[in-house]
Specification:
binds 2-phosphoglycolic acid, eight-stranded parallel barrel, globular, 8 strands, 255 residues, single chain, alpha/beta
């Protein structure tokens, strides 16, 4: 049985004070029964404030990126060591905005995934095709390449622990979503890629989320799909009431 995971990706939104107010507003209501993992992936500047507050709450914290080295002359970068020292548990890696705007390549994503595990962080690795790739029938080719490369060199246990987020690039922040059935098929395909690289036991355990314009109105249709283990949520995670509604709907689905 895979425990669903709902992760908020706040991107470059919220000062540390705004993040604090958000956490106070969702207090007590967040999936207190532990049937679902709730993760807030906040900007680096907010993580320090949130890390103290999150200790007494049923939420985990995630970063949105990190460098693969532990320390060094890398101006502007943050390492896995720094994140784990703060008590951060998750880190989003290979988000399409980082791939497209900041030149992150598959090999960099892989180095970051390995570094995350070195520091006890759970990577949420994003994979997904662009609209052009989808129209050209290349979705599976892209998902295979990105997934295989991201998990290269991991042990079976590490793959079982990690999270993969299938995020079609054309669905991010656009209001367009993959149909729940298509998302289920694409996620099923990613699971087969994992099975081919490792084995079926590993593939059955890795949690794979859907991401791209998920909101309270459509979360149930994704959660109802057998292959989908939760969601990575951008825009709809920014307002406490919308995020809470989303969690309340998601919590009805456990696999
Ligand atoms: P969105 O973003 O929910 O605003 O589409 C999702 C993401 O980028 O992870």
């Amino acid at each position: 049985m895979r425990k669903p995971i709902i992760a908020a990706n706040w991107k470059m939104y919220k000062t540390h004070d705004e993040a604090k107010a958000f956490l106070q507003e969702i207090d007590g209501l967040v999936a207190a029964d532990g049937e679902i993992d709730t993760v807030l992936c906040a900007p680096f500047t907010a993580l320090c404030t949130l890390s103290e507050m999150a200790k007494e709450r049923p939420v985990s914290l995630g970063a949105q990126n990190m460098h693969w080295e532990d320390e060094g002359a890398f101006t502007g970068e943050i390492s896995g060591q720094m994140l784990s020292a703060l008590g951060i548990q998750y880190v989003i890696l290979g988000h399409s905005e980082r791939r497209q705007m900041f030149g992150e390549m598959d090999d960099m994503v892989n180095k970051k995934v390995l570094a995350a595990f070195r520091h006890g962080l759970t990577p949420i690795v994003c994979v997904g095709e662009t609209i052009k790739q989808r129209e050209q029938g290349e979705t599976q080719k892209i998902l295979k390449k990105q997934t295989e490369r991201a998990i290269e060199g991991l042990s079976s246990d590490q793959v079982k622990q990690m999270v993969i987020a299938y995020e079609p690039v054309w669905a991010i922040g656009t209001g367009k979503t993959s149909s729940p059935e298509d998302a289920n098929d694409d996620i099923g395909f990613i699971r087969r890629v994992v099975a081919d690289q490792y084995d079926q036991v590993v593939a059955n355990e890795v949690r794979i989320q859907y991401g791209g314009s998920v909101k309270p109105e459509n979360i149930a249709s994704f959660m109802a799909q057998p292959e989908i283990d939760g969601a990575l949520v951008g825009g709809a995670s920014l307002k406490p009431e919308s995020f809470l509604q989303l969690l309340e709907k998601a919590i009805q689905y456990t696999k």
